[in-house]
Amino acid sequence: MIRKLSPALIQQIAAGEVIERPASVLKELLENSIDADAREIKVQSEGAGLLRLCVSDDGLGISEGDLPLVCEAHATSKLQAMSDFESLSSMGFRGEAMGVLAHISELEIWTTPRASELGFRLKNFFGKQTPIEVCERRSGTEVQVVHLFQNLPVRQKFLKSASAESRRLLQCFRRYALAHPEITWSYQDPDRKREVFVAASSLWDRVLWFFDANQESYWWQAEGQDRDWSLVFVALKPRYLKASRQSLQIFLNRRPIEDRRLEFAVRRAYEGYTEHPQWAVGALFLEGPAADFDVNVHPTKAEVRFVDADRVFSLIVHSLRASLSNLHSDHQAETSSGLRREENFSAISSSSASSESLASSSWGEPSSSKSARGFLSAESTSPTPAGEALSLAQTQAWTQTEIASFALPECFEYLAAIDCTYLLARKQERLFLFDQHALHERILYEALWKEHQEKGKLQSQRLLFPIQISILDSGDWMEKEKDLEDLGFELREWGNSGLQVLAVPSLLKRQPEKLLPELLDMMAAGKESLLRDLLATMACHSAIRAKDPISNQEAERLLRQFDSEDALGHCPHGRPTFIELKASELGRFFHRT
Q: End of a domain among 144, 166, 195?
């Protein structure tokens, strides 16, 4: 038999979506205080928020006429029509939380409107509301929640330990305090030290306070703009990160959100400046028109859908890369003054045209006035000469005459090779140690990227004898045949499950039979930044290896190419290409300091 549920049962069911734990209550109450234009918010918690949770503010307050509606389901002052969603600026708007909260706790509200001399008190214990009382209280509102979930023992069973729930409460409090530096915040828990966030003058100051940053010089800030979207990013500099997942806080119009794609955008921007995959430590603040995203996906409003997610993703990546390019140049100047000329890049993309070229070569995507179209650029190029040799000596070594013709003032002087892996060089009175593989990999990558951007494809050379390789599914390469041609490969089927390699990219030095299966796997994965990753993989496979002996001429050529390029401090995968051996460090080795 179908029966209509009672209002009380409906509210208890709704509680499972809106109010999951004490931290959910705190979130709703904090958002109400922020929407009330509060400049000071105080939180008190007892028993991990289950015994008592109290939030007070100095905001606008609630009028006597509106107060009875606070605990009504779907009653709100922030939304009246569907069109309001396109200009929504408040934190809350659904009008659900207080109504649900009144049915699962003992709820008390004290409030005094700013223009009133009288305050008012409302009680609603587990859905039973008492008449409004007049009381004395300063302007603002105080909401006290006692005995949360007392009438829902099942809900209590699914909560974590008291210490875990207390940590969630504090985490929630700190996230909102981080996003709103104009407000003074305080948090009091009998089991914890009182925490206070005094109103700050900027997001920068609040972020440093949030992360308890002792060294301001370890941090950096990026800004970006794309028409009506903008961002501010304050974070720990990449060189101070660790290889474990850290804390990245993301806010949309000052609302805390969780979005894996935005997290990936930040992580993507860091690629090339971190040796291993690492997570940013900092805060990303996005600002955009309400009509361009939807926060009404879930009652908690933690999930967001964007009208143009790619545009937001691109804004993050381009803005952070541009700023990090500048940051890296500054770091290079500090540690290796005069090593190479310094360039200034703007941290803010002010137009779509400039946004196209923000990806610095330090990030593995050299800037170019011409961008690849689609999966890989399909521009045709003139036929390439055949029969060019593949060896390093033939394709990359120069004669002494050619090297001498590149004599530049204050260039690197090659001294020696160490263990057939590292190149020792001198520039004036300073010593440098290069990783020959990382250095050559980056130089090759720059050449591959430049060629692909200028010609739309890579130059290829035919092999004197085709190479046969076996693959599990011969159909894989046929789907990507045109893309492989753009990368400089010419293939044809061979047998039932094999390929013949007829031509390879001109810069490819070794073992295409090992490179091709890896490229096919990357194409099948359809990952972001595919072109960059494909070219980086090709450069890695083609570069000289550790333990590979190279001639003095080849070593000198690598150093001269390095000296003529900008921002080659890391290979495309993020490993450093060189270190400087400073005199002060040598002095410590010999106990001179």
A: 195
Domain end marker among 333, 349, 384: 333
Kindly state whether residues 142 and 225 are assigned to the same domain: no
CA 43 – CA 30 distance, rounded (Å): 9
Phi, psi (rounded to 5 degrees) for 134: -85, 140
Write phi, then psi, for 493 (nearest 5 degrees). -65, 150
d(CA 20, CA 16): 6
What pLDDT was estimated at residue 238? 82
DSSP string, 140-160: EEEEEEESTTTT-HHHHHTS-
Same domain, 285 and 148: no
CB atoms within 10 A of CB 21: 23
Range in 6-15, 239-248, 326-335, 361-370 the model is least confident about = 361-370
CA dist 154 to 27, 217, 322, Å?
22, 50, 52
In a domain, 385, yes or no: no
Give the distance, in angstroms, between the CA of residue 272 and the centroid of all CA atoms in the same chain: 13
Integer Cα distance of 406 and 349 in angstroms = 36
Domain holding 220, by residue range, is 203-333
Q: How far apart are CA 499 and CA 522, in angstroms?
A: 18
Distance CA 46, CA 171 (A): 16
| Exposure string over 509-527, b if 16+ CB within 10 A, otherwise e | bbebeebbbebbeebeeee
- E-strand stretches of 206-362: 219-226, 229-236, 248-252, 255-256, 282-287, 293-294, 305-306
Helix (H, G, I), strand (E, B) or coil at 29: helix
Q: With CA atoms as reference, report the closest residue to 258 among 208, 301, 288, 293.
A: 301
Q: Do 280 and 237 share a structural domain?
A: yes
- The total domain count for the chain is 3
Q: Which two tokens stand for residue 392?
A: 């390093």
pLDDT tens, 147-194?
999 988 888 888 888 889 999 999 999 999 999 999 999 999 987 778
Phi, psi of 138, deg, nearest 5: -65, 165
72: left (phi over 0), alpha (psi -120 to 50) or beta: beta
Residue 230 CA to residue 251 CA, distance in Å, equals 12
* Pair (412, 472) in one structural domain: yes
Q: How many CA atoms lie within 13 A of 225 on its CB side?
A: 6
The answer to whether residues 171 and 213 belong to one domain is no
SS3 190: coil
The Cα angle at residue 486 between residues 484 and 492, in degrees rounded to 5: 40
Residue 27, SS3? helix
Is there a contact between 390 and 506 (Cβ–Cβ < 8 Å)?
Answer: no
Q: Are residues 129 and 235 in the same domain?
A: no
pLDDT digits (tens, 9 = 90+) for 528-550: 456 777 788 888 888 888 889 99
